[in-house]
């Protein structure tokens, strides 16, 4: 008779208790809860949060723009330190995960075995679970980054980050930066970015991260955004800025900016990345894409109006239109690698404006919704 041996669950009772901010419905403030008992299954880990940032999707959820199961702990952009590990917990590269590791992790955990995982799109796993998006359940209460700790489940890609990288830079890796890498990957399938003219609409965290990646790859990058501070930041990253609200003929009007690039021999936009979700911006990227170009849609992550597309122009122009949502393990790892080599040369830490204690999360989300900052930070302090 064969006896099957299974690794035990690690039961932890922490003092002080881990805390989390729980969201229930639009218009209702977050509620602070304690979760003193944590049960780590084999492969799980408990990570103490160092720094988190408020993503646009957090704002959309709180405003009621998108459905969400409640109660839940929002937040999926964060960096932290491992304080406990279940049996067999590993990093993304397969090496053992250790207490004391400074890490970021994927915003989602997939099964690795379904048809979608097998096709190389684990971010669309049949049984996907997403940090900061799931209803709290018994045994998995610490599910999001707006907390003092996160219970990271087995199978979640976990990537080490250096001690030197600023926390405000590292936190974005698990959403905005990795998503930007995915967008750049989608664009690069049909066009080499080196020397290409790239148009990015939307100067939020994903758009500016994609601009930084494209600039590093050797592209000539135009960032179009109505906010002058976002356009100024794009210039700091090495991009050219365009103002979609200015009158035709003005120096920052997109047509004028494109005309200047044309005089330099860059006659067509070969890559257009739409990172704002605005219908007008979507029309812009489709109308400005050149022959053989690729349009990557990444900003439309909440319900909005339909946009008309002329199929004949796309067919005759050999245009590729693709959507990107979330990312793969490889893209998360390359996001961290990009941040590691770039944070000292690019002003990436400046993308985060105000920082709030966890107890003032509602203020932080309100500030993030105002658009005053590209990102707003949250630190696990409740005093």
TrEMBL record:
Domain Alcohol dehydrogenase-like C-terminal: from-to ranges: 206-340
Cofactor list: Zn(2+)
Enzyme class: oxidoreductase
Keyword terms, alphabetized: Metal-binding, NAD, Oxidoreductase, Zinc
Domain Alcohol dehydrogenase-like N-terminal: 42-155
EC number: 1.1.1.1
Keyword Cell membrane: no
Keyword Ribonucleoprotein in record: no
InterPro entries with a match to the protein in the record: ADH-like_C, ADH-like_N, ADH_phosphonate_catab-assoc, ADH_Zn_CS, GroES-like_sf, NAD(P)-bd_dom_sf
Any matching Pfam family: ADH_zinc_N
Annotated PANTHER family: ALCOHOL DEHYDROGENASE 1-RELATED
Similarity-based family: Belongs to the zinc-containing alcohol dehydrogenase family.
Protein name: alcohol dehydrogenase
